[in-house]
Amino acid sequence: MLAFLRKSRNDDASASRTEGALVPRKVAFDWSDTPLEWIPGRPFASHFINEINLLLPAGEFWFCRLYNQALPLVTDEKLRADVQNFIRQEAMHARAHGGAIAEYLNAHGIETESNTRQEDWLFEALLADRPLGFPLPKALQRRWLLFRLGLIAAIEHMTCVLGKYALHNTVWDEAGADPTLLDLLRWHGAEEIEHRSVAFDLYCHLGGGYVSRYYLASIAMPVIFGLWAHGAAHIMRQDPRFADMKPSAFRPWIWLEWQRQSRTGHLPSLPWLIRQELPFFRPDYDPVQEASTEEALAYLDGSPAAARAAA
């Protein structure tokens, strides 16, 4: 059954579905003029999106560690090159968002360490090579690696969806949103689109199949949504305007307000995000069909942060 579901991939000359070579890009962001409420008049949406700076660095460095472990197992030359450049892109994403924590959020007085410690525990303890410190039998080590690579494939589908949203959302521009924060979102989102096939290709190349992909996505998607709401609540609790609401991922208010704010166009709604995740559950899922590489490259060619780093 699994062989049948992977047949179309094995018939190709390469395990890679990525056209051309991925390009690791350096970027430089100047946060000195970026307000904490980077979407004017929209503190909820501003805080909610700012949470990605807390959520992403630990996860993206975890991606890099796992992909370095997987590289010796890759037998396809093109896919190996894709994975190596994916690692370089993800490392730059982690550093860029880490810089936003220190130079932007912390500079505005936002306490972030208590939240980022939780992310570190998730990726460095629970999802480590020795989960919670327990060594795995050698016979299970490759299965544990493949399990985690499947989680990454599911997460990368989500980041591709969010990348499309960031590139297409002109409501932020119309509201006068801060250009530096917008560039961070769109540069990152465009690179997620550019390398959208790599995680899925690697997972399939190393033996991942449809059944396991289904349950791994069922784990990854609600966890990511929950972590997003949890981190956003942490930022909002530091804003006196939300004191009466007692923001928490375990209270209905933040989920209801997320839906209400999505109607303004400043946030993707949770139902919309769930619908966008559904293609990943199809047996014939192909990440190539999920976005436009040309559109992503067009943005990357004009990214102010990339131009600043080049200068």
Low-confidence sequence ranges:
1-11
Give the total of beta strands.
0
The overall number of domains is: 1
Considering DSSP H and I runs of 4 or more, what fraction of the residues is helical? 55-70%
The largest pleated sheet is described as: none
pLDDT averaged over residues = 94
Separation of termini? 53 Å
DSSP strand (E) fraction?
under 5%
Q: What gross morphology would you assign?
A: globular
Task: Name the structural class.
Answer: mainly alpha
Radius of gyration: 19 Å
Give the topology string: H per helix, E per strand. HHHHHHHHHHHHHH
Count of helical stretches: 14
Describe this structure in words.
Helix 3 (about 50-70) packs across helix 6 and helix 8 (about 180-195) crosses helix 13. The chain is globular. By secondary structure, it is an all-alpha fold. The longest helix is centred in the middle third of the chain and has 31 residues, at about 140-170. It has helices at about 1-10, 45-50, 50-70, 75-105, 115-125, 140-170, 170-175, 180-195, 200-205, 210-235, 250-260, 270-275, 295-300, 305-310. It starts with a helix and ends with a helix. The chain has one domain (about 30-310). The chain has 14 helices and no strands.
